[in-house]
Amino acid sequence: MRKDLKIRGYTVAQFPNLPLGLALVGLVAGWILSSGSAAHALARAVFFVGLGIWAWLELSDGVNGFRRFLGAAGLAYTVVSLAGALD
After folding, report:
1. Domain boundaries, the chain
2. Is 38 exposed, middle or buried, given 0-12, 13-18 or 19+ CB atoms closer than 10 A?
3. CA dist 31 to 16, 51, 78, Å?
4. Which residues face 7 on adjacent strands?
5. Amino acid 85: pLDDT
6. Where is pLDDT greater, at 86 or 62?
7. How far, CA to CA in Å, does 75 sit from each of 50, 60, 70, 84?
8. pLDDT digits (tens, 9 = 90+) for 18-74
9. Which of the residues 2, 29, 36, 85 could staple to 43 if both were Cys, CB 3.0 to 4.6 A apart?
């Protein structure tokens, strides 16, 4: 049985779904791998793809306003971070 963290009836945290799980794996792998390597670049790509998909899903299908806000914030972070990487 899966338990969600709720505050005053609002679901604020759940067990990570697949896109968020991939983002977390990419994040941890990026910390471990040496910067500048191809493996580090791949880990960053996995992080941003996973985070972007998760954020879009939360923004479009979040269970409440708080979760949709988290999706919007995650999507904004992804876009701003990737736009800065292109400079």
Report:
1. 17-85
2. exposed
3. 20, 16, 18
4. 10
5. 79
6. 62
7. 11, 11, 8, 14
8. 999 999 999 999 999 999 999 999 999 999 999 999 999 999 998 889 889 999 999
9. 29
Residue 2 is predicted with a pLDDT of 60
Tally Cβ neighbours within 10 Å of residue 46. Answer: 18
Residue 5 has φ and ψ, to the nearest 5°, of -85, 120
pTM as predicted:
0.83
Mean pLDDT calculated for residue range 11-15: 76
What is the DSSP secondary structure assignment for residue 9, as one 8-state letter? Answer: T
Cα-Cα-Cα-Cα dihedral sign, residues 13, 63, 3, 54: negative
Structure tokens at 71: 């999706």
Give the pair of three-digit tokens for residue 50: 């996973």
Which has the closest alpha carbon to 18: 44, 43, 49? 49
